[in-house]
Amino acid sequence: MAEKASDDTIITRSSNFTCGVVEGFYGRPWTTEQRKDLFQKLKKWGMDSYVYAPKDDYKHRAYWRELYTVEEAEHLTGLITAAKENGLQFYYALSPGLDITYSSAKEVSALKRKLDQVSQFGCSAFALLFDDIEPEMSSADKEVFQSFAHAQVSVSNEVYQHLNQPRFMVCPTEYCAARAVPNVSSSEYLNTLGSKLLPEIDIMWTGPKVVSRVMTLESIEEITEVMRRPPVLWDNLHANDYDQKRVFLGPYSWRSPELIAKLRGVMTNPNCEYGPNFVGIHTLAQWSRCNLDGKRDLSLNDSVSADIKLETETEDGGMGEDIPSNLTPNMYHPRRALHNAINDWLFEFSRPKQAWGPIMKPQPVIPIPIPVPILPSINTCMSLTTTTTTASCSSLTPQTVATSSNSFPALSTGIECQPLNPPNTSQLQTLAEVCSTVPIATENLPLMPITAPVMNSLASESKIVALPPMATPLPLPITVSLSSVPAGSIPLPLPLPMQGASTCEPMDCNPTPNGSPAHLAKTAASSTEDIAMAENGSGNSGNVLGNGSSTAMQVDSTDFSSNFQATSSNMVVESPHERDSERGEDNGSENLNEMPEKAPMTYEDVALLCDLFYLPFEHGSGGTQILHDFNWLKTHAHVVCRNHPSNGCSSDVSEEAMKNPEVQEWFDRATKLNDMTKAVNQLFTKLTNCPNRELLHEIYPYIWDARGIISTLNSYVKWLGCGNFPHVIGNFTLGNFTWFSKGWKETFMSGEHEPWVFRGGLIADLQRLLPVDSCTDLFLYKSPEVPSNKVYDIRPANILTDQHHIRSVCQSMYSSSCDLDPLPDLTTDRFLGCLLQTEQLVCMVVEDEVEVVGYTLAALNAKQFYTQMKTDFIPSMQTKYPVSESQYNLSSVQQERIGWFHSYDLEVPEQILSSHPGTINCGIVPSVQDPSALKRLVVCTLTAMRANGCFGVHTAIKSSDLVSLELYNRLGFVDLNPGYSSLYVILGRTF
Fold it and tell me: Where is this region: Disordered (predicted)?
C-alpha cells in the first residue's frame, strides 16, 4: 500500500503555476519558424513555458546520445534565445529510456554531456522523459538497482545535481492512472518516485488515462499524495497523433479551474499540425488565467469562466448547454473561450504564409476490421492492459481472422474469468458469445518493423529533414482499457496489431526497440531531403475497416507511395502559379461559383470548422446536427415513398403529396441538411483560397474528407426524396453500430475508453450512418497533394435527360481511334444498352462544375435483367449490327463488339444470383484523377440498392476487358466464381 504522505512532505508550489506547450507528439515535428511563432503567441496570451520533446526528432529520442552539429546548435540556440526574449522558460527534454543502461557510468556521462552541450546554448530548464518504454531493466541494471523506478530515480537525481539544480521535470513510465500497476495508490513504481526523487524535481502526469476526458480534484489529490508533490499535467486532450482522420479544434474543456491550485502546471501536447492548435492553446491560456475567488485581474482582457458543465445533446442534436448569461467576467466557460479564440484566429487565415512540408502522422495500415466488444456495465471489467485482469466471461477461445492476403491467430488473452455478483445470465451470455469470436490482444505481441523516418527539425528554419527509417524489428505495445459502459452490447472497431503494422497512441505511437539505433549500422544519415507535402502520403497512414467503422484518415493504399522524401531539398509545396490556377477553378457545388473568388473566412466559417473537428469525446453542435438530421431523414424516408418503379427517373414532389404535413416536414429537414452542406462547401472553398497556405495544407485533408462524406449523405437524401423505394425501407437501412445505436453515443462521450477505440471521430460516425457496413473500403482515398477547390457532386439521374451524358462517359472510357461513324452507338450499346432499358433501375451520376463525368447503372433484379437481355435486347442488337458489317472497314475492336452480340451465351450461376441479386455498370471519364469521386458515387448507389432490399451486386466482364477489370478491382469487387469461364469473370460484392 502507498505510504501516507504527511503535509510537510508534500511540496506545494501552486503559487508558481506554469502553463504552456509540450511538443511531445509522434510524427513530423514543428519547424524552427513555427516554434518561434508559437513563442510570440504564448507571450501574448500570458503563458510561460515550452517543452522541446518531439518524439521523432532523431537526437531527442532515437539517437539521444549524439551531440548537435554546429548547424543544429545554431538553430537550437536560436530557439532558446527566442523563448527568453518572449519571457518563456524553454525546457529541453531527452528521452533516453529506449535503451539506456542506467548503471553504466559511460551512459550517464553521455547523458550529462548532451545536456551540458544544450546548457551551453543558454538553456536553463530540462526534462527527462521515460514514457513509452518497456518497464524492464537490463541484466546489468538488475545487479545494481532494486527496481526500475530506483534506476530512473538514480539517473534523474544525478543529472539534476550535475546541472546545478535547474528547473527540472521527469515524465514517468507509469504516466497515467490506467498505466499504474496495480493502481495509483499501490504502485510501487510511483511510490518510489515520490519518495526517492529529489523534491525540487517536477513529475509529469496525463491524468486518469493517456487521453483524459475529465480531470477531477480527487484524482489529482491522489497522485499528489503518492508523488509527494503536485504534478505537472501533460495534457493530451488535443493530441491527434493516434488517428489520421481527426484534428481537434474545440476549446479546452472538462477541467475545472479549481485544479490550478492543485497543480504545478499544465503543458498541453496538442495536434501534430501546428496551425490548428490556435484554439486549443488560446483557450488553455484563458483557462489558466481565471480567478476563482472572484477578484478580477484588471490586467487581463479575457472573458473567462470557471463554470464547467456537461454539454449534453438535445433531441435534435443541438448542444443543451450554451453560454450562460449570468457569467461574471472572470469566470471560464468553454464556449465563450472558443468564441474569443475564433475571433483571434480569423487573422491567421488571412496572414500570407508559404507551405513547406507535410504533416506526417504515425498511423499504421490495418487492413481488416477487428471489433472489440464494449459490454454492459454490470461490474464487468474487460481490459487489454496488465492493470486489469478480470472479465465477465466463461471462456475465451483464440480465433483466426483471415484477410484478403494473410491471416493471423489471436493471441492468448491472459484474462482471468471470475463470476460476478449478482450475475446477469443474458448479458454474460452476450459477452461470452462476442468474446468467443473476437481476437483479443495482450501484451505478448509480435515484433513489428518501424517504417516511419526519423526526422531533423533543427536543420532549417522552415523545413524538416527526413532521415532513413530505422530497420530494426521492434516489439509493439498496446494498451486499451474497456470497462464500465452503459447498457447495450456494442462491438467497437479497435485496431489490433498485424503483420507489418503498428498501433498508435498519443504518448505511445512508436514501439520500444530491442536495441538503440545508435548500436545499429547507420545508413545514409546525411540525407537532406525535405518531406513532400501530402497529409496522406506517408506510407504508414492508417485505416481501420469493417463493421460499419471507418478508416483513420482514409487513404487509398493503391495510390500512395512509401517514399517519405521529396525530390528536391528546396522543394516548395505549391508554386504561386499552381496556387493561382487552383484558385481560378470554378466550383460546381451548389452555386459556389457565385461566391466571390477570394471571399475571406468569417467567424461563422471558422466556427463551423471547429464544430466538425471538436474534441476527442464530443462532437461540436454543427456536427451533431448533421448526424441527427441525416438519421431522421433516413428513418422517416418512408413518408415520401411512391411505391412504383422509376426506371431511374427522378421526379418532383406532387402538390398533393406536399399537402401531407409529414411529407412537408421531411422536405423541410432535407432542405436544412442541404443548406448545411452548402455551408460546408463554402467553408471548403474559402479555406482553399486563403492566403495562409501553411494553415491550409494542415487543415485541407480533414475538411476535404468531411466535405466529401457530408456531400455523399446529402446526395443520398436527394435520392430518397425521389421516393423510389418500398415502404419497408427501414428494414434495410438501419446499419450496424451507429451513433444512434443503444449505448454507442454514451460510451463515446463517457471517456471510459481511450479515443482511438472510436477511430475516425465525426467523419466515421457520419460514414456509419450509410447502411453499407461491409463497404468501408470505398471510403479509402487520398486527398489531393496540392489543395484544390475542384469538387464532384452526386445526384440521382433521369434516364430521359441524362442518357446522352452517360453514353458520352462510356464512350470516353471504351472508345478507340476507330470508333467513328458509321457505328457511333456501338460502344455504348455494347456496354450500356440493356441497362438503359431496364425497369427497377438505380441510376446516379457524378458531375463537376461543367458536365457529368461518371455514372452508375444498377438493376435491382439481375435475373430479370438477363432474361430481358436474351429475349429482347440481344436479338435487337443482332438486327442492328449484322455480322456481315464486320467484314467492311471496321477495326478489330468494332468487329469484336459486334461479334459479342452474335455469340452472347452468358449464364450466371444461380448461387450468384441468389447471393448477389443486383447487377451494376459504372464508369468515369479517364481525366478525373480524384479516386473519391467514383467511390462516393458507388457508395450512394449501393446504399440506394440496399434501400430496395438488395444486399449484393455483381457484374460479368469479359476476361479481355482490362479496363473494366481494373476499374472494379479498385472498387473492391472480387471474383465470385474463380475458374467459372475462360471468357467471363464475374465480380461482385455485398453491402
Answer: 503-596
